[in-house]
Design goal:
single chain, alpha/beta, Rossmann fold, 16% strand
Length: 236
């Protein structure tokens, strides 16, 4: 258990990586606010849930307001919510574009702006954005233009925000995963997806969780895009 109790906000916190992040921070004794469209109520006084669509600015406001009302501050924001639609570029629809940009970009913007405003008042804070290795290493046969456009934008925003707020006690980093065992991928695809990584397998949720925990406890690290991708970003 951590000696310092932090207040951690997690988006997309009801399943997959987000649920793993919530569990890890709670196991360390931190207070957590989590949101997603399907998140269930919590009976744990140190774990508050806020159902809602992260693409809606009202959701971001309710999350940050609840964090402050319940715990008085926001120390860490994990921008985990995201959606991936793999289609040939000319097959994407307006709805595909609207959905991906709404969750991956708009959702990031709304809640990060509010969280950083609170962190400025405190004089400290940390933001971790979950992106994707596809933004830097496209894979033939895995069409991913909208993922590259939206999550690649978060990579750029990570560095920009890190520099803008470095002198104000606020750090901003990113974790860039390869393919991870989550409900997004069916088990029968694991072997094929594993071949996309030089290590020959896909990653575990805990691989991403441990990377996030490292960054949250690394006060001299900011502006970092930490690749947790089985070597994919290095080459193939």
């Amino acid at each position: 258990m951590s000696k310092v109790k932090k207040v951690v906000v997690v988006t997309g916190g009801s399943q997959g990586i987000g649920a793993g992040v919530v569990d890890a921070f709670r196991q360390q004794g931190h207070q957590v606010i989590a949101t997603s469209r399907s998140i269930m109520p919590s009976e744990d006084a140190d774990f508050v849930t806020v159902p809602g669509d992260i693409a809606d600015p009202d959701t971001a406001k309710r999350v940050i307001d609840k964090a402050i009302a319940h715990f008085g501050r926001v120390d860490t924001l994990i921008n985990n919510a995201g959606v991936f639609v793999a289609k040939p570029f000319t097959s994407y629809t307006y709805d595909d574009f609207s959905r991906m940009s709404g969750i991956n970009v708009n959702g990031f913007f709304y809640i990060t702006q509010l969280a950083i405003a609170q962190m400025e008042k405190q004089g400290s804070g940390h933001v971790v954005n979950i992106t994707t290795t596809l933004a830097e290493q496209a894979v033939q046969g895995v069409p991913s233009v909208l993922a590259s456009l939206t999550k690649g934008g978060l990579n750029a925003a990570t560095k920009s925000l890190a520099i803008e707020y470095a002198s104000r006690g606020i750090r901003v980093n990113a974790v860039s995963p390869g393919v991870i065992k989550t409900p997004m991928h069916s088990r029968d695809k694991y072997e094929a997806l594993g071949k996309l990584h030089p290590v020959g397998r896909i990653g575990e949720i805990d691989d991403i969780v441990q990377a996030i925990l490292y960054l949250d406890n690394a006060p001299f690290v900011t502006g970092e895009i930490l690749h947790v991708d089985g070597g994919r970003s290095a080459g193939h």
